Amino acid sequence: MPLPIQPLRIPVFVSCPSALSQSQTASAKMILEQLEKNKLQWRALGQPDYSRQLPLAEVIGMIKHCAGGLILGFQQYEAKSVEYRRGVKGEHRKLGKVCFPTPWNHLEAGILYSRKIPILVFHEPNIGGGIFDTGIIPEFTHKMPTPNMGKAAKDELDSLFQRWSSEVKDYYHGY
């Protein structure tokens, strides 16, 4: 009788908050399914890895053993009103509602980028700034997938993950 040995899955670091809303969880599950379909393994601090080290040291250690990075820009904070560049003459503006992801998204993206690891960035529609701005990294940022996406959008998501996973596998194998 053959042993139930799990197939090799290449580890990718996923920057994602540990607490998500129901709709955010549905999007994260879609991404997890894409990882599994492409033989990749979700690795994130606290999910399922726990450590006795300080979080930043643990993140750096985990990323050293990953061949890809996913940044999931889910809304974590909401401000009803924001003042932009307060005290700067000619640039001060009052903005309406502004939403923010976890600040760890930016920190972890910077670590991944500095190691030249293939990165794939997704964000909810109301998330911008930092890593989520167009042109910050050579790769594009993408809208967060949702379960109500049409077939064409789901096919496009499949293609996107196939292209990115090919880069991840090349990185992993040292090509």
Keywords:
10 strands, two-stranded antiparallel sheet, globular, single chain, Rossmann fold
The helix content is 25-40%
Question: Cα distance, first to last residue?
Answer: 36 Å
The main sheet orders its strands as 3-2-1-4-9-10
Structural category is alpha/beta
Number of strands: 10
Description:
The chain is of the alpha/beta class and 175 residues long. The chain has one domain: Rossmann fold (3-Layer(aba) Sandwich), CATH 3.40.50.450. It is 34% helix and 23% strand. It has four helices and ten strands, in the order E-H-E-E-H-E-E-E-E-E-H-E-E-H. It has a six-stranded parallel sheet with strand order 3-2-1-4-9-10, with helices on both faces. It has a two-stranded antiparallel sheet with strand order 5-8. The N and C termini lie far apart (36 Å).
Draw up the topology in text.
Layout: E1 10-15, H1 22-37, E2 40-45, E3 48-49, H2 55-64, E4 68-73, E5 77-79, E6 82-84, E7 93-95, E8 98-100, H3 104-114, E9 119-123, E10 141-143, H4 151-173
Parallel strand pairs: 1-2, 1-4, 2-3, 4-9, 9-10
Antiparallel strand pairs: 5-8, 6-7
Short account of what is shown:
The protein is built from four helices and ten strands. The protein has 175 residues and is of the alpha/beta class.
